Amino acid sequence: MKVKIIADSGCDLPKEVVEKFDIDILNIIVTNKGIEYRDGLDLKNTELFKKQRLGEDFKTAQIPMYDYLTSFEKAAEEGDFIYISLSSGITGGYSNSLLAIESIKEKYPNREMVSIDSQSASVGFGLVTYYAAMAAKNGADFNELVELLDFLVKNIKHIFTVSDMEYLYRGGRVSRTARSVGKLLNIRPLIDVTDKKLQVKELSRGNHKAYKRMLEIIKTSIEKSRSYDYIFPIYGEEITAIEPFLKLLEENLVINIMPQQLGCAIGAHTGPDIAGAGYLDKEIPEKFHKYLE
């Protein structure tokens, strides 16, 4: 029986991928003016971006415990499952998922179940989930999937930039001075996930230089590409905004390029103007290749 893969909406995987690999998605809560919305259900990313441009502020909240319990029990009724969480440095959801699994295990002691901290976000988290779901669909068993996920979590990389540091400032990730200087001098922060949190890695001036620097970082990190290797570029409101970055990737990398659109959970903290990518910095071990072809 196939192992069920469950993730949360912070993975930013599109509907067609979720349906293709039969991934269950738990929706992170996004709040605006005291109203709670379920990411991707009650609030679409296009609506979020439109309201952000009008000056509205959004925050995020944890997935309700009831949602974890309901999803996990449904999965346990049918078989084994693995839940993959948005980085524990960004949300408390991972801790809550552990509590939910402890409760479900009491009722289904013969089922295998585990929660994995992806230690990543958006397209990095999405790529981890994509590979795990592909392997599950192609017959990998529970222990093989846990081992694969251990490798993926340790080797997933991200690099992003945003055009407006206002949203990073509101979230406490850059100082007031950095925000002001960034606007004045057209500075672009390069952001990665370090110690499970979104961190400003370095600064670049203008989109062109930021895109070139991100390409340099990605090329240095990637060891070797195979036919099943993917890189997930990320865009916000419009894919056309990152076409120069996509062109650089296409011209310099021999890899499958699958652009993904930013969702509400991470978009609430970065704003609508984002470019970047999630990728692996090591080749997936050969023993997993049969599940990824």
From TrEMBL:
Origin: domain of life: Bacteria
Database matches in SUPFAM superfamilies: DAK1/DegV-like
Gene3D superfamilies documented for this protein: 3.30.1180.10, 3.40.50.10170
Biological source species: Anaerosphaera multitolerans
Name this polypeptide is given: DegV family protein
MF GO annotations: lipid binding
Keyword terms: Lipid-binding
NCBIfam families, per the entry: DegV
Phylogenetic placement of the source organism: Bacteria, Bacillati, Bacillota, Tissierellia, Tissierellales
